[in-house]
Amino acid sequence: MLRRNCLLLFLCFLFEQSSCAPFQSRPGQEWPRQTGPSAAGRNGGSRGFQRVKRGWVWNQFFVLEEYMGSDPQYVGKLHTDLDKGESAVKYTLSGDGAGTIFTIDQITGDIHALRSLDREEKPYYTLRAQAVDVETNRPLEPESEFVIKVQDINDNEPKFLEGPYTASVPEMSPVGTYVMKVTATDADDPTYGNSARVVYSILHGQPYFSVDPKTGVIRTALPNMDREVKELYQVLIQAKDMGGQLGGLAGTTTINITLSDVNDNPPRFSKSIFHLRVPESSAVGSAVGRIKAHDLDIGKNAEVEYNIVPGDGGAMFDITTNEHNQEGIIMLKKPLDYETKKAYTFKVEASNAHLDPRFHNFGPFKDTATVKINVLDVDEPPVFSKPSYAMDVYEDTPQGTIIGAVTAQDLDAGNSPVRYSIDWKSDLDSFFDIDPVRGTISTNELLDRESIAQHNISVVATKVSKYDNPVLTSRVAVTVHVLDINEFPPELAMPYETFVCESAKVGQVIQVISARDQDLPQAGQRFSFKSPQEGVKTKNFTIRDFGNNTAGVVTLRGGFKRRSQEIYHLPVVIEDGGLQMLSSTGTLTIRVCGCDTDGSLLTCSAEAIFLPVGLSTGALIAILVCIVILLVIMVLYVGVRRQKKKETLMTSKEDIRDNVIHYDDEGGGEEDTHAFDMGTLRNPKVIKENLFRRDVKPELGLCPRRPIASQNSADISNFISQRLQEHDGDTSAPPYDSLATYAYEGEGSVADSLSSIESLKGEMEEDYDYLNEWGPRFKTLAGIFEMSTWASFGQRYF
């Protein structure tokens, strides 16, 4: 590097007067911005502004980057024509890096770089220079700007900023198939020399891949690269500057190229014949065995489909593909029987599910193998001749009658004997029995179709083994239908409510009847209807059979009257169509009713015939309303009368013997202690003796005994206690709460006695028997009044 820099400086020195003119001023060149010494100094002292020669000129300087010399690197020289070599001119430098990176000799104008520079860090520096007078420090020339450019050298190698790289290309690709593109970056100046011109080459990875020297595009270079042979390739790419010439700097990167799979390999069985074994007791749908065809491809290109080639034994089995490991699972499609067939042979074909048309010329993408399956003998339970049995028996069949038989057989080579039994859970009432050897089923009880019409029993066949093998059993369902016999006579379908209008005409059908029978079948039964004595006509009604299991009640006359006869009874004979015909006689009750003109029912009541002729329904309703209003008025009158008798007649507050407190509020009973103080009437010394019975009603004729007035009226407490004892010992007192008088009421009282008990006789003397004379409908009213009187009595004295 140092030798090369020195060579460049030497060349610049040789061409200093020509090619390196920017480093030094050229006398006589014009520079519009510069001014030199005045023309007067050169032309005899004439004064005025005249065009003069350029005083000092420079354009730009160059400095080599990465200078490694021990002395400061010489950059260039500044000079002005005003400098006569007498050290009268001083040069100054300012701007980027002045004094730190660049320095100038103030006398000679030589510029030097104090340290090594890097173009990639800063490509140029802008500085300003000026020439001044040494003594006066006055500028001799205007300040001028110049540029020092860092000249590039090849000090940066190309770099792959995104490496290492990963790429893929399909296997079996033709030569020149695009793989990817790589790009290297060089930090050197691309405008100067060949420092940044990069050339690509492949160092490792041939002869499989190639790279374009200029663009860096990588392509395949070898045809028919097989992934199954080699899947991963590592390619080393080099990028070199200086156009790849000797001395250029280089950088490398690694590319991992993977061959992606294509379906270029068919599936292949590892062997041509597969031997499998399966017990004959295997269930339908169970796996018999597994086979596999190997495919060298991966992913969906290795997916295999298996099919059984139609032929011998193929109908007994099926095959499916396991999606996880691509195995072929052979499934049992039908039950096996060792005694029928001991081995099966068939072919299985394996093929790819996804084919690539580019490789059809490689041959068929399928393979075939032979599968041989041997059936293993298993000790099996006995087998019934039918999957289920159905038997019929008439009800009331005698006990022990054989109704059918079941048959089971041991199909194994030993042909062991079979024993039969009935599962007790299916025949809890033991209606049937079975012969353990022959399998015949017989009745054990009388059967009744009306109780149980169908019996479902389970027959068990057990294999008798000669060795200590487990007991093998099998079951079969047996359905026993109980057939009906004609044991129930027919009867009327329902209790009919039949009526005939008084205005009915001769031959009119007044009722349609039908019948029912508990015997089977319910559908398709045949019933016939007739009168008890066929051929003898009755006077009023007859039965007409319609022939469709229904009949009609027909009138034989008209002019029915409720006054003469309200109810008629008509017997009906019903016969069924069984082999042993049964019959029964039912009776229809026919009421005579009143109807309107269109035959609609009005009333069937017998009392209606006693009503006066000419009264309509509206008139009857009006009469009843009037009666109700009269009853309400009478009840209100009685209530008002009783209310007046309850007014208090004694309001005197001067009688100290018995004070009757008069107030208008209704008391709350014995627990009401807020209206007045009950403590003044209580005597804790009173002994409860001679308690009277309160469970009998007192006689109405007895009146309370008037006690003798106390001689010591000042002691009210003793007086009241004495009267309480006398009253409690009175057996004629009523058994409910009552008001008792303990003292005299006074002489000449206008109100008479205040005791409500004495007034009972006057109120009870009122007699309501006169209401009975008004008719039977007023008996209820008389009873209501009497009950109302007793209710008022109870409310008053309870």
UniProtKB/TrEMBL annotation:
Highest taxon of source: Eukaryota
Residues covered by the Cadherin domain: 80-160, 161-269, 270-384, 385-492, 492-610
Membrane topology reported for the UniProt record: Single-pass type I membrane protein
Sequence segments annotated as region (Disordered)? 23-47
Spans through the membrane? 609-640
Keywords, A to Z? Calcium, Cell adhesion, Cell junction, Cell membrane, Glycoprotein, Membrane, Metal-binding, Repeat, Signal, Transmembrane, Transmembrane helix
Q: Which SMART domains match?
A: CA
Q: Which residues form the signal peptide?
A: 1-20
According to its UniProt record, where is this protein located?
Cell junction, Adherens junction; Cell membrane
Chief localisation class: other
- A single Gene Ontology molecular function, please? calcium ion binding
Q: What does the UniProt function comment say about this protein?
A: Cadherins are calcium-dependent cell adhesion proteins.
List the protein's name. Answer: Cadherin-12
Provide the taxonomic classification. Eukaryota, Metazoa, Chordata, Craniata, Vertebrata
